From TrEMBL:
<comment type="similarity">
    <text>Belongs to the Gfo/Idh/MocA family.</text>
</comment>
<dbReference type="InterPro" id="IPR050984">
    <property type="entry name" value="Gfo/Idh/MocA_domain"/>
</dbReference>
<dbReference type="GO" id="GO:0000166">
    <property type="term" value="F:nucleotide binding"/>
</dbReference>
<dbReference type="Pfam" id="PF22725">
    <property type="entry name" value="GFO_IDH_MocA_C3"/>
</dbReference>
<dbReference type="GO" id="GO:0033712">
    <property type="term" value="F:1,5-anhydro-D-fructose reductase (1,5-anhydro-D-mannitol-forming) activity"/>
</dbReference>
<keyword id="KW-0560">Oxidoreductase</keyword>
<protein>
    <submittedName>
        <fullName>1,5-anhydro-D-fructose reductase</fullName>
        <ecNumber>1.1.1.292</ecNumber>
    </submittedName>
</protein>
<dbReference type="InterPro" id="IPR036291">
    <property type="entry name" value="NAD(P)-bd_dom_sf"/>
</dbReference>
<dbReference type="InterPro" id="IPR000683">
    <property type="entry name" value="Gfo/Idh/MocA-like_OxRdtase_N"/>
</dbReference>
<feature type="domain" description="Gfo/Idh/MocA-like oxidoreductase N-terminal">
    <location>
        <begin position="5"/>
        <end position="121"/>
    </location>
</feature>
<dbReference type="InterPro" id="IPR055170">
    <property type="entry name" value="GFO_IDH_MocA-like_dom"/>
</dbReference>
<feature type="domain" description="GFO/IDH/MocA-like oxidoreductase">
    <location>
        <begin position="133"/>
        <end position="247"/>
    </location>
</feature>
<dbReference type="Pfam" id="PF01408">
    <property type="entry name" value="GFO_IDH_MocA"/>
</dbReference>
Amino acid sequence: MADTVRWGILGAGSMAEAFARGLAELPDAVVSAVGSRSLDRAKGLAERLRIPKAVGSVEELVASPEVDLVYVSTPNHVHREHMVLALGSGKPVLCEKPFALNAGEAREVAELARSAGLFCMEAMWSRFIPCMARLRELVRGGTIGEVQMLSAQMGYPFEYRPGGRLWDPGQGGGVLLDLGVYLVSMALDLLGPVEGVVGFASMAESGVDDRVGLVLRHSGGRLSNLSASLTGATGNDAVLSGSGGLIRVAEPFYRPERLTVRSVSPISPGADGSGGGRLALLKGMPVVRSVARRIDPLIDLARGGRRDLVVPLSGNGYQYQAAEAMRCLRAGETESPVMPLDESIAILDVLDEVRRRWGDLGSNP
Ligand SMILES: NC(=O)C1=CN([C@@H]2O[C@H](COP(=O)(O)OP(=O)(O)OC[C@H]3O[C@@H](n4cnc5c(N)ncnc54)[C@H](OP(=O)(O)O)[C@@H]3O)[C@@H](O)[C@H]2O)C=CC1
Ligand SMILES: O=C1CO[C@H](CO)[C@@H](O)[C@@H]1O
Protein backbone atom coordinates (compact mmCIF):
# COMPACT_ATOMS: atom_id res chain seq x y z
CA MET A 1 0.00 0.00 0.00
CA ALA A 2 1.30 3.40 -1.00
CA ASP A 3 1.78 6.06 1.68
CA THR A 4 -1.33 7.89 0.56
CA VAL A 5 -4.67 6.10 0.70
CA ARG A 6 -6.91 6.84 -2.29
CA TRP A 7 -10.60 6.95 -1.41
CA GLY A 8 -13.49 6.33 -3.78
CA ILE A 9 -16.72 7.94 -2.62
CA LEU A 10 -19.97 6.24 -3.53
CA GLY A 11 -22.89 8.66 -3.48
CA ALA A 12 -22.61 12.38 -4.07
CA GLY A 13 -25.08 13.75 -1.55
CA SER A 14 -24.70 15.72 1.65
CA MET A 15 -22.81 13.05 3.58
CA ALA A 16 -20.44 12.35 0.70
CA GLU A 17 -19.46 16.02 0.72
CA ALA A 18 -19.10 16.20 4.51
CA PHE A 19 -16.91 13.09 4.55
CA ALA A 20 -14.70 14.38 1.75
CA ARG A 21 -14.26 17.67 3.62
CA GLY A 22 -13.36 15.72 6.75
CA LEU A 23 -10.71 13.77 4.82
CA ALA A 24 -8.97 17.05 4.04
CA GLU A 25 -7.74 16.90 7.66
CA LEU A 26 -5.69 13.81 6.84
CA PRO A 27 -2.46 14.54 4.96
CA ASP A 28 -2.14 10.88 3.92
CA ALA A 29 -5.61 10.63 2.33
CA VAL A 30 -6.96 11.76 -1.04
CA VAL A 31 -10.28 11.32 -2.79
CA SER A 32 -9.45 9.92 -6.20
CA ALA A 33 -12.98 9.29 -7.52
CA VAL A 34 -16.64 9.89 -6.81
CA GLY A 35 -19.56 7.93 -8.23
CA SER A 36 -23.31 8.26 -8.17
CA ARG A 37 -26.27 7.08 -10.22
CA SER A 38 -26.35 10.48 -11.82
CA LEU A 39 -23.10 11.43 -13.54
CA ASP A 40 -24.04 15.11 -13.30
CA ARG A 41 -24.36 14.90 -9.55
CA ALA A 42 -21.00 13.11 -9.26
CA LYS A 43 -19.42 15.71 -11.54
CA GLY A 44 -20.87 18.54 -9.45
CA LEU A 45 -19.23 17.20 -6.29
CA ALA A 46 -15.99 16.47 -8.15
CA GLU A 47 -15.83 20.06 -9.40
CA ARG A 48 -16.61 21.55 -5.99
CA LEU A 49 -13.99 19.47 -4.22
CA ARG A 50 -11.46 19.05 -7.06
CA ILE A 51 -11.84 15.28 -7.20
CA PRO A 52 -10.07 14.07 -10.37
CA LYS A 53 -12.62 11.46 -11.50
CA ALA A 54 -16.43 11.32 -11.55
CA VAL A 55 -18.43 8.31 -12.73
CA GLY A 56 -22.14 7.65 -13.21
CA SER A 57 -22.53 4.16 -11.77
CA VAL A 58 -21.70 2.14 -8.68
CA GLU A 59 -20.03 -0.54 -10.79
CA GLU A 60 -17.63 1.94 -12.40
CA LEU A 61 -16.68 3.45 -9.07
CA VAL A 62 -15.89 0.14 -7.36
CA ALA A 63 -13.95 -1.07 -10.42
CA SER A 64 -11.76 2.07 -10.55
CA PRO A 65 -8.10 1.05 -10.28
CA GLU A 66 -7.18 4.34 -8.62
CA VAL A 67 -9.40 3.54 -5.62
CA ASP A 68 -7.91 1.75 -2.57
CA LEU A 69 -10.87 2.08 -0.21
CA VAL A 70 -14.58 2.68 -0.91
CA TYR A 71 -16.74 4.88 1.30
CA VAL A 72 -20.45 4.11 0.86
CA SER A 73 -22.72 7.12 1.44
CA THR A 74 -25.82 6.11 -0.47
CA PRO A 75 -29.22 5.71 1.25
CA ASN A 76 -29.76 2.93 3.78
CA HIS A 77 -31.69 0.52 1.55
CA VAL A 78 -28.75 0.11 -0.85
CA HIS A 79 -25.91 -0.20 1.71
CA ARG A 80 -25.92 -4.01 1.52
CA GLU A 81 -25.98 -4.06 -2.28
CA HIS A 82 -23.22 -1.44 -2.59
CA MET A 83 -20.96 -3.13 -0.04
CA VAL A 84 -21.43 -6.45 -1.83
CA LEU A 85 -20.44 -4.80 -5.13
CA ALA A 86 -17.39 -3.14 -3.61
CA LEU A 87 -16.19 -6.27 -1.81
CA GLY A 88 -16.90 -8.27 -4.96
CA SER A 89 -14.49 -5.95 -6.80
CA GLY A 90 -11.84 -6.63 -4.20
CA LYS A 91 -12.24 -3.24 -2.49
CA PRO A 92 -12.23 -2.67 1.28
CA VAL A 93 -15.24 -0.72 2.53
CA LEU A 94 -16.29 1.89 5.04
CA CYS A 95 -20.11 2.13 4.97
CA GLU A 96 -22.37 4.78 6.45
CA LYS A 97 -24.67 4.04 9.36
CA PRO A 98 -26.89 2.09 9.62
CA PHE A 99 -24.61 -0.65 8.30
CA ALA A 100 -27.63 -2.37 6.71
CA LEU A 101 -31.42 -2.52 7.02
CA ASN A 102 -31.38 -5.47 9.42
CA ALA A 103 -29.06 -7.96 11.08
CA GLY A 104 -29.61 -10.57 8.36
CA GLU A 105 -28.18 -8.23 5.73
CA ALA A 106 -25.32 -7.27 8.05
CA ARG A 107 -24.40 -10.93 8.62
CA GLU A 108 -24.36 -11.54 4.88
CA VAL A 109 -21.94 -8.64 4.29
CA ALA A 110 -19.76 -9.65 7.25
CA GLU A 111 -19.45 -13.19 5.91
CA LEU A 112 -18.51 -11.90 2.48
CA ALA A 113 -15.88 -9.49 3.83
CA ARG A 114 -14.40 -12.16 6.07
CA SER A 115 -14.27 -14.80 3.37
CA ALA A 116 -12.66 -12.28 0.98
CA GLY A 117 -10.23 -11.18 3.71
CA LEU A 118 -11.15 -7.52 3.08
CA PHE A 119 -11.47 -4.67 5.55
CA CYS A 120 -15.06 -3.68 6.25
CA MET A 121 -16.49 -1.30 8.86
CA GLU A 122 -19.62 0.68 9.64
CA ALA A 123 -18.89 4.42 9.62
CA MET A 124 -19.96 4.81 13.24
CA TRP A 125 -17.94 8.02 13.47
CA SER A 126 -19.08 8.81 17.01
CA ARG A 127 -16.94 5.97 18.38
CA PHE A 128 -13.78 7.56 16.99
CA ILE A 129 -14.27 11.11 18.27
CA PRO A 130 -11.34 11.80 20.69
CA CYS A 131 -13.70 12.74 23.52
CA MET A 132 -15.39 9.34 23.24
CA ALA A 133 -12.03 7.59 23.45
CA ARG A 134 -11.40 9.59 26.64
CA LEU A 135 -14.80 8.54 27.98
CA ARG A 136 -13.96 4.86 27.44
CA GLU A 137 -10.67 5.35 29.29
CA LEU A 138 -12.48 6.94 32.24
CA VAL A 139 -15.00 4.12 32.36
CA ARG A 140 -12.36 1.40 32.16
CA GLY A 141 -10.27 3.19 34.77
CA GLY A 142 -13.17 2.97 37.23
CA THR A 143 -13.66 6.74 37.54
CA ILE A 144 -17.36 6.34 38.35
CA GLY A 145 -17.11 2.90 39.93
CA GLU A 146 -19.25 0.15 38.49
CA VAL A 147 -21.06 1.49 35.42
CA GLN A 148 -24.76 0.77 35.73
CA MET A 149 -26.99 2.95 33.54
CA LEU A 150 -27.00 5.13 30.44
CA SER A 151 -29.58 7.74 29.62
CA ALA A 152 -29.32 9.37 26.20
CA GLN A 153 -31.47 11.09 23.65
CA MET A 154 -31.16 12.33 20.11
CA GLY A 155 -33.68 14.29 18.13
CA TYR A 156 -34.31 17.22 15.85
CA PRO A 157 -37.48 18.68 14.33
CA PHE A 158 -36.87 17.59 10.73
CA GLU A 159 -39.15 18.94 8.06
CA TYR A 160 -41.68 16.28 7.01
CA ARG A 161 -40.86 15.26 3.43
CA PRO A 162 -42.59 11.98 2.58
CA GLY A 163 -40.27 11.19 -0.37
CA GLY A 164 -37.06 12.10 1.46
CA ARG A 165 -34.71 9.44 2.82
CA LEU A 166 -35.72 10.02 6.47
CA TRP A 167 -39.42 9.60 5.81
CA ASP A 168 -39.50 6.97 3.09
CA PRO A 169 -39.92 3.35 4.27
CA GLY A 170 -38.62 2.23 0.87
CA GLN A 171 -35.25 3.89 1.51
CA GLY A 172 -34.90 2.50 5.02
CA GLY A 173 -36.14 5.71 6.65
CA GLY A 174 -37.32 6.19 10.21
CA VAL A 175 -35.80 7.45 13.40
CA LEU A 176 -34.58 4.10 14.66
CA LEU A 177 -32.29 3.52 11.69
CA ASP A 178 -31.23 7.15 11.36
CA LEU A 179 -30.68 8.25 14.98
CA GLY A 180 -31.51 5.26 17.17
CA VAL A 181 -28.49 3.52 15.72
CA TYR A 182 -26.16 6.02 17.47
CA LEU A 183 -27.89 5.54 20.81
CA VAL A 184 -27.74 1.76 20.62
CA SER A 185 -24.12 1.88 19.47
CA MET A 186 -23.20 3.99 22.48
CA ALA A 187 -25.12 1.73 24.86
CA LEU A 188 -23.36 -1.39 23.55
CA ASP A 189 -20.00 0.35 23.65
CA LEU A 190 -20.30 1.47 27.27
CA LEU A 191 -22.54 -1.15 28.89
CA GLY A 192 -21.82 -4.30 26.88
CA PRO A 193 -24.02 -6.94 25.25
CA VAL A 194 -27.80 -6.57 25.29
CA GLU A 195 -29.97 -9.34 26.74
CA GLY A 196 -33.39 -7.76 26.36
CA VAL A 197 -35.12 -4.74 24.91
CA VAL A 198 -38.53 -3.08 25.00
CA GLY A 199 -39.58 -0.10 22.96
CA PHE A 200 -42.48 2.03 21.89
CA ALA A 201 -42.79 4.19 18.81
CA SER A 202 -45.03 6.69 17.15
CA MET A 203 -45.42 6.42 13.41
CA ALA A 204 -45.43 9.14 10.78
CA GLU A 205 -48.09 9.23 8.09
CA SER A 206 -45.53 7.94 5.61
CA GLY A 207 -45.25 4.74 7.66
CA VAL A 208 -41.84 5.23 9.26
CA ASP A 209 -41.23 5.45 13.01
CA ASP A 210 -40.71 9.11 13.90
CA ARG A 211 -40.30 8.88 17.71
CA VAL A 212 -39.00 5.98 19.78
CA GLY A 213 -38.35 5.22 23.41
CA LEU A 214 -36.25 2.17 24.28
CA VAL A 215 -35.06 0.41 27.40
CA LEU A 216 -32.20 -2.03 26.96
CA ARG A 217 -31.17 -4.60 29.55
CA HIS A 218 -27.47 -5.37 29.34
CA SER A 219 -25.61 -8.19 31.01
CA GLY A 220 -24.97 -7.72 34.71
CA GLY A 221 -28.24 -5.82 35.26
CA ARG A 222 -27.04 -2.69 33.48
CA LEU A 223 -29.76 -0.60 31.81
CA SER A 224 -30.00 1.97 29.01
CA ASN A 225 -32.85 4.41 28.63
CA LEU A 226 -32.80 5.84 25.11
CA SER A 227 -35.09 8.07 23.10
CA ALA A 228 -34.98 9.55 19.63
CA SER A 229 -37.15 11.82 17.55
CA LEU A 230 -37.44 13.08 13.99
CA THR A 231 -40.19 15.50 14.94
CA GLY A 232 -38.88 17.56 17.86
CA ALA A 233 -35.87 18.83 19.74
CA THR A 234 -34.17 16.83 22.48
CA GLY A 235 -31.16 17.52 24.72
CA ASN A 236 -28.88 15.38 22.53
CA ASP A 237 -26.74 14.65 25.57
CA ALA A 238 -26.05 11.53 27.59
CA VAL A 239 -25.51 10.62 31.23
CA LEU A 240 -23.60 7.55 32.29
CA SER A 241 -24.28 6.54 35.88
CA GLY A 242 -22.11 4.40 38.12
CA SER A 243 -21.83 3.32 41.73
CA GLY A 244 -19.29 6.07 42.37
CA GLY A 245 -20.56 8.95 40.28
CA LEU A 246 -21.70 10.01 36.87
CA ILE A 247 -20.36 11.35 33.60
CA ARG A 248 -22.37 13.76 31.51
CA VAL A 249 -21.49 13.72 27.81
CA ALA A 250 -22.16 17.19 26.44
CA GLU A 251 -24.44 17.88 23.51
CA PRO A 252 -24.15 16.54 20.87
CA PHE A 253 -23.22 13.25 22.53
CA TYR A 254 -22.38 11.63 19.17
CA ARG A 255 -19.71 14.29 18.49
CA PRO A 256 -18.87 15.62 21.94
CA GLU A 257 -16.04 17.84 23.09
CA ARG A 258 -16.80 18.00 26.81
CA LEU A 259 -17.34 15.52 29.63
CA THR A 260 -18.46 16.48 33.12
CA VAL A 261 -17.40 13.99 35.76
CA ARG A 262 -19.06 14.01 39.17
CA SER A 263 -17.95 11.76 41.99
CA VAL A 264 -20.54 10.65 44.50
CA SER A 265 -19.37 8.75 47.56
CA PRO A 266 -21.59 5.96 48.86
CA ILE A 267 -24.43 6.92 51.15
CA SER A 268 -24.57 4.54 54.09
CA PRO A 269 -27.70 5.17 56.14
CA GLY A 270 -27.22 4.72 59.88
CA ALA A 271 -29.56 2.69 62.05
CA ASP A 272 -31.78 5.75 62.39
CA GLY A 273 -31.67 6.36 58.67
CA SER A 274 -29.98 9.69 59.18
CA GLY A 275 -27.10 9.31 56.79
CA GLY A 276 -24.67 7.27 58.94
CA GLY A 277 -21.15 8.20 57.99
CA ARG A 278 -22.25 11.70 57.04
CA LEU A 279 -23.56 12.32 60.52
CA ALA A 280 -20.50 14.17 61.74
CA LEU A 281 -20.72 16.52 58.79
CA LEU A 282 -24.47 16.97 59.11
CA LYS A 283 -24.25 17.67 62.82
CA GLY A 284 -22.01 20.61 62.14
CA MET A 285 -24.59 22.16 59.85
CA PRO A 286 -27.29 24.59 60.90
CA VAL A 287 -30.12 22.46 59.53
CA VAL A 288 -32.59 20.11 61.08
CA ARG A 289 -31.98 16.43 60.68
CA SER A 290 -34.88 15.71 58.35
CA VAL A 291 -33.67 18.36 55.92
CA ALA A 292 -30.13 17.05 56.21
CA ARG A 293 -31.35 13.63 55.15
CA ARG A 294 -32.78 15.06 51.99
CA ILE A 295 -29.69 17.04 51.06
CA ASP A 296 -27.27 14.25 51.86
CA PRO A 297 -26.83 13.24 48.20
CA LEU A 298 -26.22 16.87 47.28
CA ILE A 299 -23.54 17.14 49.93
CA ASP A 300 -21.93 14.08 48.42
CA LEU A 301 -21.92 15.69 45.00
CA ALA A 302 -20.36 18.84 46.40
CA ARG A 303 -17.74 16.90 48.32
CA GLY A 304 -16.93 14.53 45.51
CA GLY A 305 -16.49 17.46 43.20
CA ARG A 306 -17.15 18.14 39.60
CA ARG A 307 -14.60 18.12 36.83
CA ASP A 308 -15.05 19.37 33.29
CA LEU A 309 -12.84 17.70 30.72
CA VAL A 310 -12.59 19.39 27.35
CA VAL A 311 -11.35 17.23 24.49
CA PRO A 312 -11.58 19.30 21.30
CA LEU A 313 -11.96 17.81 17.86
CA SER A 314 -10.63 19.17 14.62
CA GLY A 315 -12.46 19.69 11.35
CA ASN A 316 -15.96 18.23 11.18
CA GLY A 317 -14.91 15.05 13.01
CA TYR A 318 -15.58 12.60 10.16
CA GLN A 319 -11.86 12.06 9.57
CA TYR A 320 -11.22 10.08 12.77
CA GLN A 321 -13.11 7.00 11.56
CA ALA A 322 -11.35 7.35 8.18
CA ALA A 323 -7.97 7.44 9.92
CA GLU A 324 -8.86 4.21 11.72
CA ALA A 325 -9.89 2.55 8.43
CA MET A 326 -6.55 3.61 6.92
CA ARG A 327 -4.62 2.38 9.95
CA CYS A 328 -6.33 -1.02 9.67
CA LEU A 329 -5.64 -1.19 5.95
CA ARG A 330 -1.95 -0.51 6.44
CA ALA A 331 -1.69 -2.91 9.36
CA GLY A 332 -3.47 -5.66 7.41
CA GLU A 333 -6.36 -5.71 9.91
CA THR A 334 -9.70 -6.53 8.32
CA GLU A 335 -11.80 -5.24 11.22
CA SER A 336 -11.38 -2.39 13.65
CA PRO A 337 -11.31 -3.35 17.32
CA VAL A 338 -13.28 -0.16 18.03
CA MET A 339 -16.10 -0.97 15.59
CA PRO A 340 -15.90 -4.64 14.60
CA LEU A 341 -18.51 -6.18 12.33
CA ASP A 342 -20.04 -8.16 15.19
CA GLU A 343 -20.83 -4.86 16.85
CA SER A 344 -22.71 -3.62 13.76
CA ILE A 345 -24.61 -6.91 13.71
CA ALA A 346 -25.38 -6.59 17.45
CA ILE A 347 -26.73 -3.06 16.96
CA LEU A 348 -29.04 -4.26 14.19
CA ASP A 349 -30.09 -7.27 16.29
CA VAL A 350 -31.35 -4.80 18.90
CA LEU A 351 -33.11 -2.64 16.31
CA ASP A 352 -34.70 -5.76 14.76
CA GLU A 353 -35.92 -6.96 18.16
CA VAL A 354 -37.41 -3.56 18.96
CA ARG A 355 -39.27 -3.49 15.68
CA ARG A 356 -40.50 -7.04 16.17
CA ARG A 357 -41.72 -6.22 19.66
CA TRP A 358 -43.63 -3.13 18.53
CA GLY A 359 -45.95 -5.51 16.77
CA ASP A 360 -46.05 -7.85 19.80
CA LEU A 361 -46.83 -5.06 22.21
CA GLY A 362 -49.47 -3.61 19.95
CA SER A 363 -48.20 -0.12 20.65
CA ASN A 364 -48.53 1.08 17.09
CA PRO A 365 -51.46 1.31 14.73
N1 LIG B 1 -22.60 10.07 9.72
C1 LIG B 1 -23.43 11.08 9.63
O1 LIG B 1 -23.33 12.07 10.37
C2 LIG B 1 -24.48 11.06 8.60
C3 LIG B 1 -24.73 9.91 7.91
N2 LIG B 1 -25.67 9.87 6.94
C4 LIG B 1 -25.88 8.62 6.22
O2 LIG B 1 -25.36 8.78 4.90
C5 LIG B 1 -26.19 8.14 3.95
C6 LIG B 1 -26.58 9.13 2.85
O3 LIG B 1 -27.25 10.20 3.42
P1 LIG B 1 -27.25 11.64 2.68
O4 LIG B 1 -25.93 11.97 2.14
O5 LIG B 1 -27.89 12.58 3.62
O6 LIG B 1 -28.25 11.35 1.48
P2 LIG B 1 -28.40 12.19 0.12
O7 LIG B 1 -29.78 11.92 -0.37
O8 LIG B 1 -27.95 13.58 0.31
O9 LIG B 1 -27.36 11.47 -0.87
C7 LIG B 1 -27.50 10.15 -1.29
C8 LIG B 1 -26.63 9.90 -2.49
O10 LIG B 1 -26.78 8.53 -2.88
C9 LIG B 1 -27.10 8.47 -4.28
N3 LIG B 1 -28.05 7.36 -4.50
C10 LIG B 1 -29.31 7.29 -4.07
N4 LIG B 1 -29.84 6.11 -4.40
C11 LIG B 1 -28.89 5.45 -5.07
C12 LIG B 1 -28.86 4.17 -5.67
N5 LIG B 1 -29.90 3.33 -5.63
N6 LIG B 1 -27.72 3.81 -6.27
C13 LIG B 1 -26.68 4.64 -6.32
N7 LIG B 1 -26.65 5.87 -5.75
C14 LIG B 1 -27.75 6.24 -5.13
C15 LIG B 1 -27.68 9.81 -4.62
O11 LIG B 1 -27.28 10.14 -5.92
P3 LIG B 1 -28.18 10.11 -7.21
O12 LIG B 1 -29.06 11.29 -7.08
O13 LIG B 1 -27.19 10.19 -8.29
O14 LIG B 1 -28.91 8.81 -7.16
C16 LIG B 1 -26.98 10.74 -3.69
O15 LIG B 1 -25.77 11.17 -4.26
C17 LIG B 1 -27.35 7.54 4.74
O16 LIG B 1 -27.11 6.18 4.94
C18 LIG B 1 -27.33 8.26 6.07
O17 LIG B 1 -27.77 7.45 7.14
C19 LIG B 1 -26.38 10.98 6.61
C20 LIG B 1 -26.17 12.16 7.25
C21 LIG B 1 -25.22 12.29 8.33
O1 LIG C 1 -26.28 10.57 11.10
C1 LIG C 1 -26.76 11.65 11.24
C2 LIG C 1 -26.15 12.61 12.17
O2 LIG C 1 -27.01 13.56 12.67
C3 LIG C 1 -27.93 14.10 11.77
C4 LIG C 1 -28.67 15.19 12.44
O3 LIG C 1 -27.79 16.27 12.67
C5 LIG C 1 -28.75 12.98 11.18
O4 LIG C 1 -29.82 13.40 10.40
C6 LIG C 1 -27.87 12.11 10.41
O5 LIG C 1 -28.48 11.08 9.71
